[in-house]
Structure formats: C-alpha cells, structure tokens
Amino acid sequence: MHTTPTWNIFQKIGFRFFFLHVLLYAFPFPLDAFTYLEENVTKFLTDTLWGNLVPFMGDLFFSVELPSESPITGSGDMTYNYVQLFSCVFLAVIGAIIWTFIDRKRKNYTKLLRILVIYMAYYVLFSMLSYGFYKIIPLQFPAPHLGRLIQPYGHSSPMGIAWTFMGASKAYTIFSGVAEVTAGLLLIFRRTRTLGGLVAFGVMLNVFMMNMCYDIPVKTYSFHLLFFGLFIFLQDWKRIFAVFFTKAATTPRSFPKYFTKPEYNGASIVLKLIILGHFFYGIIGQVVEANAAYGPNTPKPPLYGIYEIEHFQKNKDTIPMLVTNDTLWRRIVFQRQNTFNAYRMDHNALWLSMELDTVAKTMRVKNYRDSTDIYNFKYTLKDNILTLSGTRKKDTLFIKATQYDLKKFKLINRGFNWINEYPNNR
Fold this sequence. Notes:
Layout: H1 9-26, H2 38-62, H3 79-102, H4 110-136, H5 146-150, H6 158-167, H7 170-186, H8 193-213, H9 219-233, H10 237-245, H11 262-294, E1 305-314, E2 317-318, E3 329-334, E4 339-344, E5 349-357, E6 362-367, E7 374-382, E8 385-392, E9 395-403, H12 410-413
Antiparallel strand pairs: 1-2, 1-3, 1-9, 3-4, 4-5, 5-6, 6-7, 7-8, 8-9
C-alpha cells in the first residue's frame, strides 16, 4: 500500500524557500524564451518587478543608487545583479516564513516538487541549448580577432585569455557546445532527465570554475545552472547510491502519467511540444541572425588585415615613429565592415566607424565618442602598401603602411599535428 511520506520541519521550510527562490531568480521564464513577447509582455513584467524593487533594495540596504533597468554591458556580475540576487533571497525568506504560518499542517510537497523539477529542467535546458548552439556555430568564442593577435600578451585580461583559448580551437569550442546541447536534449525527457542533470552539472561546473578563475562576469548565473543541474540529478540519489555503494536490489524508476484523465495528459504533451517548439524556433532564429551579422563566414571588409605604419606626416611635417610618442598611431586594423581601428604606440586602440567607397577610393572615419572628430581620406592599396591622404579638422595627414602577413601568426596557423618531435610551447 502506498503511503504518503511525511517531511520534517526543516525539509518543508527548506523547500518553501528554495521553491520561491527558483521562481524569483528565473522570473519571467519561460515567457522570456518567447521572442515575440520580449518587447512587450516580458519587458513589462521585468520592469514592474525588478525595475521597482532593485533600486529600492539597493537604497534601503546598501545605500547605492541603481537604475530602474539593468544596464546592458555584457556583464552578469554588476552591482545591479547582486542586489537583484539579494532581493530574490530576501523575498524568498519572507515568503517562506509567511508560507510556513499559513500551511503548517501539510505533510509534504511531493507534487509541487515534481512541478519544480520540471520547471528547473526546462530553465536549464533552454540555457544549455542557447549557449550550446552559440558555441557550435561558433559565435560565443570566435577565432582570435586581428586586434587580439597584435595585443601584448601581458596586457590581456584573464577573461581575454580564456576567450582566446577557446576561440583558438574551433573543434574544442564545438565539442563544448555539443556537450551543452546534449545536456539540454537529455533534460527534455523524463527517462533521461537524471542523466541530463548530471551532464548539465558536469558541463556547468567547468564553466563556473572558468568564470571564477578567469574573472568572467557570469558567476552567479553559471552557479545557479550547475546547482539546478545537480538538484535535478539528485532526485534519484537513493537509487544511484544503492547501485554503486550497496548490494541491495534496485528497482527501475516508474514514470506514471501526470494526470488520471487521458485528455489532460494529451493536453500536457501538446503544451510541452508548443514550449519546446518555441524554444528551438527562438534559439535557432537568433543563432541564424547572429551568424549572418558577425559569424565566421561573414564577408571580410575590402581592406581586411593589419597594417604597420612606416611613415606618418602631419601638415607636411614627418613625425618620427618613436615608441615613446604614446598618441602616435602604430598600426591600423580592418577587422569588420565599417570599422577602422587605430592602435597607438602605447598599444591602446581607437575604435572608429568608417564609411568606405571602394569605387572612389575614399573613406570617412568618425570617432564614436565625438561626432565632430572626422577623418576624410583618399586611399590606395598596391603591393601590400596602403597610403592614406586627407584631412582631420584643419590638419592634413599622410600615412603609409605595410600590410602584415597573417601567415606569420602561429596561433591561427599552427593547426593540428599527430607527430611532434618537440613540444611547440611558445
């Protein structure tokens, strides 16, 4: 006869807190996975909750002034994010206390736990599929860009080193993406969900440690993903423990229907297919758009390459190419369409926009930060020699530069070798 288990007080309070924390942290998932809801419903819900709560909590507890919207900087470790996480924990604690008072007599939350595990599985699988496909293309870790190749090694940040390490090997990046997609696919089905949780935990443990050790600002998010994966895996911990550490017979896990009425089970399958269909549609659509915009196969600009400046003339006066002249341009890099990157003697870069006319052989270069700072050049490129002649404000400029042979960079040309008589550790 099936008996209803009775949870102790610590299990019930712990579950209440954890349940609320997961919902608050993942909010407004899964609505934010539906791309057509992003600009209206999702933004409204996010702004209504966090847009009001985070600035209030930041001022109340930490005396910091925060904006109503999370700044888009590419970092997940901003002050805003940590105050948001604190708010999740704070609300979960308050909610768990209230929940405990109004629901003291309940014996357990086994049904609610099932729902929570499903919710967490979908949250993790969406993240695994998103990050996985962005690695498989690869988009998250592209090959080292030209600016990175000429940057002094010691000037790199730990995160920059990690990005270069991943991007230097397309095969390894794809392998990492396949592992993440595999974890996501395993989480879809109940029979493979435990294995999916284990794979997600293993993958995200590596990601989390990389984030921690190389100061990559996605620490709290990656920690939650690895913890969610572990939690999903541990739903079967008794059977797993028995298999590996005891001689007791272990019965296969049963997977009963969610509902007693067939029509409800049919509706749940349809709902599952709709959600998963939107997941794949949204993720693949974003990947296709990103690949077209900045993927590895996007067309390179006509002047693509690195150019070492040999001669710099201003108002007909030749300026000596001295490394002590920090503001003097040392190299020009054309990496992407409509961009002009000038690297100075102190190795700092000027990121400029460019309008190139390949017919008239002219380029208009503008400073992103100062719209009045404009360079108007006529250019020629012959026998790997680039010349720029033109004006900047009231000054006349003439620049002569030689195109650098990219085949000299070992990082992007070494390739794979079965036989190495000596380690090529340069």
